[in-house]
Task: inverse folding
């Protein structure tokens, strides 16, 4: 990737569309011309409004695995595609924790998202650092084993160790040198699963990313972008993060 991919996961924020549009308006103005691909993933209800904003892509934080039917409360990949979304975050650990979303559900969602031409941002990460290798291997195989060769280049992977997500107790960001090792591990697993073509998959890092630490996570043998939670809710912090990412990525 020539530019870092910076995905903002707004989670269940902000509480009204005025604030959502204000946040997006500052971001779009400030990131114009910056060498980074910025994706804003707001709650579903703000997606149509945010699609009117320039210089950024818009994504969703989840979707269902069927395109239509009697699934009360769900939003389909087709609906997201047809309203202008480009990306969908899938399998975020908060969905497993609070809603009991399983790997098999996420696997179906990946297929559904790919089938309508959206980009799935597949989240994967270990709960226990001591079990990292096994946990990542098991999860990646379960999630990606049925991805067809034609779809490999459409995937984005977000490595998010659960203990690094800022809202978790005692959260701390990944050590950048450890990130290099874990990315090498993920690359090895992906190659054995999907072949050399998997080298095209951007690997993002997520977990307590800030404007200050972003550069330490980026690089050809580290992350090609980031998935940002808390720091994406402050226009000032997020704009600084995007600008630092662009500078760090060039060096
Ligand atoms: P954080 O969240 O940046 O607040 O740690 C990341 C995420 O949950 O995707």
Result:
């Amino acid at each position: 990737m020539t530019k870092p991919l910076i995905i903002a996961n707004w989670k269940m924020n902000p509480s009204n569309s005025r604030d959502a549009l204000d946040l997006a308006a500052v971001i779009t103005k400030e990131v114009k011309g910056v060498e980074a691909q910025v994706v804003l993933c707001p709650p579903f209800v703000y997606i149509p409004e945010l699609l009117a904003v320039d210089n950024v892509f818009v994504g969703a934080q989840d979707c269902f695995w069927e395109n239509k039917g009697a699934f009360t409360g769900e939003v389909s990949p087709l609906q997201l595609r047809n309203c202008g979304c480009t990306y969908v975050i899938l399998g975020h650990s908060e969905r497993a924790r609070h809603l009991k979303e399983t790997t098999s559900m996420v696997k179906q969602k990946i297929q559904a998202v790919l089938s309508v031409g959206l980009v799935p941002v597949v989240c994967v990460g270990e709960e226990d650092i001591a079990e990292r290798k096994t946990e990542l291997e098991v999860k990646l195989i379960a999630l990606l084993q049925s991805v067809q060769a034609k779809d490999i280049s459409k995937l984005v992977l977000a490595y998010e160790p659960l203990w690094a997500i800022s809202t978790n107790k005692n959260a701390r960001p990944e050590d950048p040198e450890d990130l290099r090792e874990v990315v090498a591990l993920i690359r090895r697993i992906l190659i054995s699963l999907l072949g050399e073509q998997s080298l095209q998959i951007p690997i993002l890092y997520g977990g307590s990313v800030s404007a200050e630490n972003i550069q330490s996570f980026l690089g050809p043998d580290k992350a090609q972008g980031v998935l940002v939670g808390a720091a994406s809710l402050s226009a000032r912090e997020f704009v600084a993060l995007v600008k630092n990412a662009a500078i760090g990525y060039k060096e």
